[in-house]
């Protein structure tokens, strides 16, 4: 018997579950990956279990407590365990409920050899084979489900579209489903900051063959031994290097992982975070809307991205869903279409502060049968050249423009803002917002470069009746606005013929043929997609619409500032919003009529 010095209460050879480490799974292409298996302890040695599987690069053996000590300490106590790992299900919790957990290191990470190329098609092919392998194991009941956050959610959509034998349902928490639009290029703008931080902090640090992992408490050293610096470099591609060369959706990087959501047919519980306005929201909503599943559910949450999947009330929902599809024990009706309302909303009403899970529990929930809500009244709110935002169209006697700077010396010059009067009554906004604007690009006096493109960042902020800002929790606990949108003007062309195009969600193809440069001082109409949201604006509250050429409130690590993607020579200039009889500028809000 050996005692784990970190967890003296635990006899490390005798967990309350059976722990098998570094099990080899051969892939049909001649390669292999290594997985950890955690199984319930039962009297019957032949018992078969439903299985929850994950496959990813953050380290099956990297203890959560070292991976992110602060986040670990904020977790629900029963998820603070010896085998807890970042963004994946807790073995101790699920084995106690009759589930086996399989946790794989993907190729090139942890104990799985190979080329480290996350989010690649090879990674998804391996995940599919892993699921089929699991379904055939004598200890599995043949039904595999998936549960995980972010990376471990995004991969589920793609996995499900491959239809591996044995996959019975998916529960993606806060992931993306469209590599281009949701993750890598927001409105065409490279979302470099997040890709870079995530890769270096938690992917590269776990590369297969990287020396010193055990010494850093970052899992075990590589079974086959460490690799040289040169061999390591030759065996990986960073996310940003993989993506940066491709501005369009037909680029090899995006095309190779493109899939059709309609191929997702297994039951889906898609969990979207209203605060995930850079990564953890859009794809869950789109995934719900367009997956081919007969049984699909959309659940909204709030809070930091690392914690909610482990909240007791969330775990209870996950468990009832998995029990229905992996154990055949459907207590609430998930498997009978129409019995469980398809949408479970969280209503963001009042100022509860941000990054405070306890306070956020004050937000009520409401079930709905569809998304967006059928009773939505799309209502325009007009921008005024005087910085106002109002329900009535302003009368404009002479053409005016509101200007702000791209690459300003002083960041406050990098945006324009438009503020409403205090709301006269409580107003619910739930759904998708579009900003309709007329904009132009100009140069400064003595500016040597001629700009040819313009990046737009849009945010909607909330001011309470008493004058303080109502902040919402961003992915890492940042103070965030209600919601945001992004668009590179050269991608302004929409495709209204596309079956996914909606008045409330303009569809863009982002193909080379769509790119359209801007001629200086010519005025272009544009519809800017803003990410789906919910807020209840109370009587006396105000909204502020910000339109900028700079990153707005709450961007956190998700900066769009790659010098190759946004060169100053191309973007530096004066951006203008035009107002005249011909140029109405407005946002279309999804207003939900008061049900009282
Ligand atoms: C991999 O797992 C096996 C089996 O549990 C164990 O003997 C071995 O020590 C593990 N390797 C490492 C590097 O932890
Ligand atoms: C996996 O492949 C290796 C190498 O080809 C082979 O030695 C091993 O027996 C295979 N394992 C299984 C379980 O098939
Ligand atoms: C086999 O698949 C793995 C995992 O996706 C990949 O890393 C490896 O390069 C592939 N090997 C070959 C020979 O294609
Ligand atoms: C101004 O923009 C709005 C919204 O994009 C559009 O409907 C309108 O046609 C534009 N005006 C002109 C003259 O292009």
TrEMBL record:
Query: Which SMART domains does the annotation name?
Result: PepX_C
Molecular function (GO) terms listed?
dipeptidyl-peptidase activity
Q: This protein's superkingdom?
A: Eukaryota
* Span of domain Xaa-Pro dipeptidyl-peptidase C-terminal: 319-588
SUPFAM superfamilies assigned to the protein according to its UniProt record, in alphabetical order: alpha/beta-Hydrolases, Galactose-binding domain-like
Record keywords, A-Z: Hydrolase
* Keyword set includes Nucleotide-binding: no
Q: What residue stretch is flagged as signal peptide?
A: none
User: Known InterPro entries for this protein?
Assistant: AB_hydrolase_fold (IPR029058), CocE/Ser_esterase (IPR005674), Galactose-bd-like_sf (IPR008979), Xaa-Pro-like_dom (IPR000383), Xaa-Pro_dipept_C (IPR013736), Xaa-Pro_dipeptidyl-ppase/CocE (IPR050585)
Q: List, alphabetically, the NCBIfam families matched.
A: CocE_NonD (TIGR00976)
| Name of the molecule in the record | Major facilitator superfamily domain, general substrate transporter
Q: Specify the species.
A: Purpureocillium lavendulum
